[in-house]
DNA sequence: TAGTGGTCTAGACCACACC
DNA sequence: GTGTGGTCTAGACCACTAT
C-alpha cells in the first residue's frame, strides 16, 4: 500500500463539532479544488485514508460518498476513486434553429458536432403514434393523438441527450415527418414545406437530479444533474406545431440565449 | 412503533443481483411516484423499515441515502424522512428585462413576486469595488477593476437566488449604480440614463450540483442542483456594460426563452 | 494473486424533536 | 422519556481490475 504524499491532506480536528467524515470530505475537496489532485487523478484508496486519518473504513466511505454526491469524483469498482474530468461542453446557441442553419443534408446536431471536432451519433430512433399526455395536449392545443419521434444523441460515444418530438397527427401523419429519416433540414424543414412556416420557438428550462432510467440511458455519473428542456414550435398562424421534450446531461451542455432589451 | 400499512411496500427478492439497499430504495421510490406517500408525508422510520425488510439499519440507511441524493426526500434529524414537497416554481419570462417592465418604483424581482402572490425579500446587499477575474474581464472586454453588486433574493422566507453584478468602473463609479439602492427601475434604468441605451442581453445557462457554500447560502436540500446563469448586457454601441452572475436553486425556477425562427 | 471498491452485519453512543 | 435520525466502530465476505 502506497502512502499519501505529505502536505496533501491534513489531520482531523477532534475538538471540532464537524463530523469526522465531513472533515475528511472537506480536506479532499480542498485538495481537488487547489489542484493537488488533478482531473482524472486517482485519490488515495480507502485503506490509505483509513490509515492516514485513523478512522474506520465506513467513516472514510461516507466522506467519499459526499464528494460523489457533489459530482466531484467518479468511483470505479476495483480501480479506485478519481477526480471527475470536466468534459468539454457543447454550446447551444440562441440561433440554432434559424432557417439559415437548416439547408444542410444533415441534421443540425451532426453538423454542429462535426464543426466542433466531435463524433456525433443518433440512435434509439423510434417513430410511432401515441395517445397524448395532458401536458403535451395543453402545449399543442388539444391533440388527442400525436406522432412521437424519440431519439438519443451521443458525442464521441457518450450519450448526452434524449429527445422526444410530439406533433399533431393531422399535420404529421403520412408525411416524411413520420419516416425515421425525415430528410435534409429535419422535421422543421418538412413542416415548412407542408405550409407551416415557422414563426418562433418557446423553450422552458429546468434542472433536476435524474430519475434512475435517465441515469441508465444517459450513462450519467452520480452527482450529475440533468437539464430538462421543453421546446414548442409555433407557425405564423400562431399554432403550436411541435413540442420537443429534451433531457440533457448537465455536464455536456451550456445553453445560450439572447434577450431583447425593448 | 407503528407498522407499515400492508401493500405499500413489498418484499426483497433474495435471488436478485440487485443489492438489498437498492431494492429497498426502488420500492420506496415507486411508492412515492405512485402517490402511496404524498408530498410532505413521512416515510416509515428506519426501525420500521429494519423490521419490515429484515435488514440492518445500515442497509436501510443506504437505501434512504439514495432517495436523498435523488432529491426525492428531505431528512429531518429527530423527526423523520419526508417526501420532498415540490415548491411552486417561479417562471422567468423571456421579456423580463424589457424596458416596459422597468418603469416601476420597485425592483423587477419584487414586482413579479408580489404579482405571483409571494413575499419577496432582498438581503445581503453589498456594493464594492473589486479586482476583476479573467472570466469577467473577458466578458466585459478588459476592465481591470469593476463595481460588484452582491445580493440574495428570497421568496416567502426561502432563499432562491444569489446574484453578483459586475460593471466597469468607468461607467458605474460615482453614480447611483454604486449606491445600495440604485432607485426605480434598477441599474438597467440608471445605465440608460447615463447614456448606455441597452440593446440586448446574452444569457448562458448551466446546471450543476452546488458547492458547500451555495448549499449554505441558498439553504438547499440535498439532491437539489443549481442553475448557474451568466447574463451580459450590451448597449447599442455593442459594448458589454454589465455581467450578472446568478446562482439559483433549481427547484425554485423555470426559465422561459423565445427563439426566432428566421 | 493482490488491491480496490461494494455490500452487509451487529452492535454503540449521540443530538434533536416531541410530548 | 421516547422515538427519531446522525455518527462511528470492527469486523466480514464479495465483485471487479490489474498483473
TrEMBL record, chains A, B:
Gene3D superfamilies: Chorismate lyase-like (3.40.1410.10), Winged helix-like DNA-binding domain superfamily/Winged helix DNA-binding domain (1.10.10.10). Residues 18-86 form the HTH gntR-type domain. Keywords: DNA-binding, Transcription, Transcription regulation. It holds the Pfam family UTRA. GO terms for biological process: negative regulation of DNA-templated transcription. PROSITE patterns: HTH_GNTR. PANTHER family: GNTR-FAMILY TRANSCRIPTIONAL REGULATOR, MANNOSYL-D-GLYCERATE TRANSPORT/METABOLISM SYSTEM REPRESSOR MNGR-RELATED. This is GntR family transcriptional regulator. It comes from Streptomyces bathyalis.
Amino acid at each position: 500500500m502506497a502512502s499519501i504524499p505529505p502536505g496533501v491532506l491534513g489531520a482531523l480536528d477532534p475538538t471540532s463539532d464537524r463530523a469526522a467524515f465531513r472533515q475528511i470530505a472537506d480536506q479532499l475537496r480542498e485538495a481537488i479544488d487547489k489542484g493537488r489532485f488533478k482531473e482524472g487523478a486517482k485519490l488515495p484508496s480507502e485503506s490509505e485514508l483509513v490509515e492516514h486519518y485513523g478512522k474506520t473504513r465506513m467513516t472514510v466511505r461516507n466522506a467519499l460518498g459526499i464528494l460523489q454526491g457533489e459530482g466531484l469524483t467518479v468511483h470505479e469498482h476495483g480501480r479506485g476513486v478519481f477526480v471527475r474530468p470536466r468534459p468539454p461542453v457543447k454550446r447551444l446557441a440562441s440561433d440554432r434553429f434559424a432557417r439559415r442553419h437548416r439547408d444542410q443534408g444533415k441534421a443540425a446536431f451532426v453538423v454542429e458536432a462535426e464543426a466542433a471536432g466531435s463524433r456525433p451519433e443518433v440512435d434509439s430512433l423510434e417513430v410511432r403514434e401515441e395517445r397524448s399526455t395532458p401536458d403535451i395536449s395543453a402545449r399543442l392545443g388539444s391533440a388527442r393523438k400525436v406522432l412521437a419521434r424519440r431519439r438519443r444523441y451521443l458525442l464521441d460515444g457518450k450519450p448526452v441527450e434524449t429527445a422526444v418530438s410530439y406533433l399533431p397527427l393531422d399535420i404529421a401523419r403520412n408525411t416524411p415527418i413520420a419516416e425515421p429519416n425525415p430528410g435534409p433540414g429535419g422535421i422543421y424543414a418538412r413542416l415548412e414545406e407542408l405550409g407551416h412556416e415557422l414563426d418562433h420557438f418557446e423553450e422552458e428550462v429546468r434542472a433536476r437530479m435524474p430519475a434512475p432510467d435517465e441515469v441508465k440511458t444517459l450513462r450519467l455519473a452520480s452527482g450529475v444533474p440533468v437539464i430538462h428542456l421543453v421546446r414548442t414550435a409555433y407557425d405564423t398562424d400562431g399554432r403550436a406545431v411541435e413540442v420537443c421534450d429534451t433531457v440533457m446531461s448537465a455536464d455536456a451542455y451550456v445553453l445560450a440565449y439572447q434577450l431583447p432589451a425593448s
